[in-house]
Amino acid sequence: MASIFNVQLFFFLLIIFFTIQPTQQQHPLDPLTPSELNLVQTILTHAYPNSNYNLTFQYVGLDDPDKPTLLSWLSNHSTTKIPQRRAFIIARINHQTHELIVDFSNHSIISNQIYQGHGFPLLTFDEQKAANALTLAHAPFIASVSKRGLKINEVVCGSFTVGWYGETRNNKRVVKVMCFYLDGTVNMFMRPLEGVTVTVDLEEMKIIGFWDRLTVPMPKAEGTDYRESEQKPPFLLPLKKITVEQPDGPSFEIDGHGVR
C-alpha cells in the first residue's frame, strides 16, 4: 500500500509542478495564433458583413512592431511590456484591395488604406477552384475537348495570373485557365491541352475570353508516371550509405519560434 501511495503522490506532485510553471513569454515576432486569426475574421466580417460587401481575405499575418520598440523589449523583456500585437491584412472588399491593420488590444481596425498601385493580391484557393469549375462547365470548352477525342472527366485545370507587361492599370483581376489531360497518368503536366485558352474575370466570376486556335496531338500517357510504384526495371544502382553525426548534439537551440 505504501508503494502505491508513494507512486500516486509522485504523480500528484508532478502534475502540480507542471501546472504552476509559468507559461513561456510570447515573443513580439511570434506568428499569429489560431485564436488571433479567428479574431481577425470576426472583426472584419463584423465591419464588412457578407450580405452587404464582397469580402475575401488574400493575406493575414503579423504586423511587425517598429524596430525601436522591439529593441527596447529585447534589451529587458523581463520588465518591459511586450509590444501590442497587431495583424496586417490584405483583403478584397467590393472589388478594391484594402490594406488593414487590426489591433488585438482593443479589437478594432486602426488602419484601412485602399491600394491604388499596380498589381493585385494573391489568388485564393476558392477563386482558383471557382475559375476552374467555370471552364470545365463551359459549353464551347466541352466541345473543344470532344473535338479532340478526349474525355471531359479526365481533364483538370489550373488558374494562373495573366501577367503585367507595362500596360496602363487594369482594374480587372483576370486569370488564364490552363488545362491538362490525365487518362492513364498522374503526370498531368506531360499532357497539356494545347491550343485552347480561357480567361476568367475573378471579380465577376465569369468567362470573358475563349479561344480554340489549333489542335495539337496529345502526348501518350505511357512512360510519363513518375511514381516509384510505377517504375519498372532496369533501375539505377542504389546510392552508397552515408552517415552524418553530431556526438555533442546540434549547434543550435529551438526556443518557441526562435532558433539560437
Automatic annotation (TrEMBL):
Checking Gene3D superfamilies in the record gives:
3.10.450.40
| Organism whose genome encodes this protein | Castanea mollissima (Chinese chestnut)
**Protein name per the record:** Amine oxidase
EC number(s) given by UniProt: 1.4.3.-
User: Quaternary state and partners of this protein?
Assistant: Homodimer.
The record places domain Copper amine oxidase N2-terminal at 27-114
Q: Which UniProt keywords apply?
A: Copper, Disulfide bond, Metal-binding, Oxidoreductase, Signal, TPQ
Keyword RNA-binding in record: no
As cofactor, the record names: Cu cation
